[in-house]
Amino acid sequence: MNDNDGHEIDLAALRREYTKGGLRRPDLTPEPLQLFELWLKQACEAKLSDPTAMAVATVDETGQPYQRIVLLKHFDEKGLVFYTNMGSRKARHLEQNNKISLLFPWYPLERQVNFVGVAERLSPIEVVKYFHSRPKDSQIAAWASQQSSRISARSILEGKFLELKQKFQNGEVPLPSFWGGFRVVFNSVEFWQGGANRLHDRFLYQREENGWKIDRLAP
After folding, report:
1. What are residue 70's phi and psi, to 5 degrees?
2. Across the strands, what pairs with 74?
3. For the whole prediction, is pTM greater than 0.90?
4. Would the N or C end of the chain have less CB density within 10 A of its end CB?
5. Beta strands in the chain (DSSP E)
6. Domains of the chain by range and CATH?
7. Known binding positions for substrate
8. Residues comprising the binding site?
């Protein structure tokens, strides 16, 4: 592969050591959400760009996987929450197959967390409450963009946004009927911590009737 200057980039030679520290069984918490909360707090304290950004993986009706970056907006023992246009590609996928995976790629801390589970639609009350907590321009943008639909030029999107901004300038922005969110109810969580000599630490939490089973995985 060549870079913009025409120089060849040897991808196979690109490597580095992982030296941030390991993850040992005494570091683990009885439930995965406790450790996730700690790691998320540390990601925020480290001032990572978009520490709540997660790769959301869904599959279409043919089994073709898709991924995109979405922001986590809430989490508790019930699950992890994100919002989206319900006409978007990911929402259409989840309507047909609600199995989902979320990956938090905290590379500067040499960490990853992967949640696997199913997505459930949020209640209208939850959606309305969050929608009206957003900045007004973000509310208007939700109306302006029919997510994942084809548009011929950015100017069309910008024009629609300005038109709606004028329309709603003196009043509340109503919740679009096509806007909503999902709660991911997870049944497994994997924590990955980079290690020296590629001996990474991986622990998998799997939900069982009486709690969580924890296994160490080979890197």
Report:
1. -135, 155
2. 81
3. no
4. N
5. 53-59, 65-71, 74-76, 79-85, 99-106, 111-121, 179-193, 201-208, 211-217
6. 25-124+180-216 (2.30.110.10)
7. 15-18, 73, 130, 134, 138, 198-200
8. 15-18, 68-73, 83-84, 89-90, 112, 130, 134, 138, 147-148, 192, 198-200, 202
* Binding-site residue ranges for FMN: 68-73, 83-84, 89-90, 112, 147-148, 192, 202
Please, which residues bridge with residue 2 across strands?
8
Is the CB of residue 118 less than 8 Å from the CB of residue 94? no
Annotated catalytic residue, options 111, 198, 207, 216: 198
Q: Catalytic site residue 154?
A: no
Q: How far is CA 162 from the centre of its chain?
A: 29
